[in-house]
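Pasting as-is:
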Amino acid sequence: MVITPESSNPYSIQQEELQKIDAYWRACNYLAAGMIYLRSNPLLKEPLQPDQVKNRLLGHWGSSPGLSFVYVHLNRLIKKYDLNAIYLAGPGHGAPGVLAPVYLEGTYSEIYPNMSEDEEGMRRFFKQFSFPGGIGSHCTPETPGSIHEGGELGYSLSHAYGAAFDNPDLLVTVMVGDGEAETGPLATAWHSNKFLNPIRDGAVLPILHLNGYKIANPTILSRISREELEDLFKGYGYTPYVVEGEDPTTMHHLMANTLEHCVNEIHAIQEEARTTGVAKRPRWPMIILRTPKGWTGPKEVDGHKVEGFWRSHQVPMGGLHHNPEHLQMLVDWMKGYKPEELFDEKGSLIPELKALSPKGHRRMGANPHANGGILRKKLKMPDFRDYAVDIGRPGSIEMENTKVMAYFLRDVMRNNMTNFRLFGPDETASNRLHPVYEVTKKTWLADFLPEDEDGSELSPDGRVMEMLSEHTLEGWLEGYLLTGRHGFFHTYEAFAHVIDSMFNQHAKWLDICKKEVPWRAPISSLNILLSSVVWRQDHNGFSHQDPGFVDLVTNKSADVVRVYFPPDANCLLSVTDHCLRSTDYVNVIVADKQSHLQYLTIEDAVKHCTKGIGIWEWASNDDCGKEPDIPDVVMASCGDIPTREALAATAILREEFPDLKVRFINVVDLFKLQSEGEHPHGLSNRDFDTLFTPDKPVVFNFHGYPWLIHKLVYRRTNQDRIHVRGYKEEGNINTPLELAIHNQIDRFNLVIDVINYVPKLRSAAAYVKERMKNEIIDHLHYAYDHGIDKPEMVHWKWPY
């Protein structure tokens, strides 16, 4: 649908107002070009010299004019309707198109006083862009008003919807680049409109910016017919409006009419839903904006087409230090915006243009939702101790750990029904988190069938977010957190890799915020539960067995990442409570959903999790009251299934070798293994040696890939004595014990390891080693014959 200047519409826009909007936009384009090229002489008051041009020309011009074009038109409507609005820029490296209007509205200078609204401030503003010691060419955390960097393409739309959830008065306008629109995460994010409740949520206005090209190729959506393009978005459930052209005068009029129509359509949708109290899925508006790439820039350079072609994607022309023709072309280009009409002698935007900007927090660069920590309120938390498991004797009863935690999450949800949501890809019940359905259902505004009443748990008012796209879920959650709320994400461990890059980008955002952007208030941590873990994917096969997400996490800054392996339900409760209260971290919790032995009372669990690592005295026998109390071997574990097998191995050792002194250590906080100089949670070398001894053999049973432990402890004393068992890419369709045996994390292989590494055993324990090998053979045969493990393995309990 196209709303033309001749169309019948109720919006009266004076030509004088459009001329001012165009002038403001010209100022934005002038600043955008200046950021890319200039290091001094910002207003070109003197002849431009080569040394006044940056030596490295970085940043992207191509999408910048379109980004500022929309920003300026949004400003008009914010003032007219007192809109509460933020703006997300999807095109990568498009920061000049956002930084320029943020500077002109005054927000940038308020946050960075040395970037003042005068000639000297403009010089600094230009120089800092893509310059050492300055800022990047994306909408980085340093950019006021930004909650989306765009360093990796594909996440802008899901971030926008996440920001709109539970923000009923917020309008989130998101510019989706046509290159970005080719990514998988962006393609699934279009379906977010099926989850937006017009009663309780804000609105998202997507604007697909078709400028025709990526770095060096046409974009797909720009090369299909308008009919096909509109049908695509009608199929997604939107009402598409098209604004296309290249003449600025016509385009301003088109955009003003279309954008205002969309805003009023959104308000009408919300008013109807909020008046009737009926939440149904409307056809939300979206805009297809088609402009030339590099709009208003050089049309041709060295005989090659630039404007409207991929050559304008980055820097339209280079070599300015040695090519006077190119240098003059830059001068002509920038002076073509008539800066003398836009800025006064001091270098400030003239008052009649300055008046076009909204005021105070209505400026999109100053909107508090884009600095969500300002709005964040602490969760009203129940006491996690009230959900504790009565364990009896350690290792004597079994519980589904995540289900115990789910009752805690249920009441967290109950207490925080406007600022907490649970996110997961169609696995809430599978991961045993279904108790949350007692207080809320799954958000659903698409069609209902009668059979859905029988167990589907769907409701327009639901607060459980399920969609079979980890990308979209993660994007929703990030947008939700960045605008000041709280959430919890869960997924199958093997498929957390789907969001590897999204986690990377969010972790980098947090790291920059904590180290370099003090004006950003802390936001709620990103909490990720990995369940359905590798050791209980024996029935699903090799494809479902991968514990490597935590390896990726450990590569990120120690200031922002935490990894927890609670061994039982009470520890999981303690860890979850801690993570939900924390800010500015990515917390990864690894906990299986199946039944597991319970080891610690809630009091002991709190102590153990607070320390992050500790000796389990009830499983150890080296504290015998005699001097010296030095163990012969340290048995260590990290993870629920490896802990069970390590305890079983310890029990065998104590039975077979009564004089063998075994110290049992469990690790909850993975980063305790690093040295204190590498991670703030790391143990000092003194404390590490106190726990593990400086020279005794350590047999470490780990949940993940064994080399990760070696990476973490590489600086520890005599590290070659630390022998790690973990997943080694062995297994397929197996029983649980069979899978453990194939990867040598089982009790029998651990006993063999102790025999091999403890000098006083070795040949003296030959018969025990033989029995362990026979046990391995017997259990493998039993699994092949019966398809299950022996009952004594399935129902094993700690015997001491």
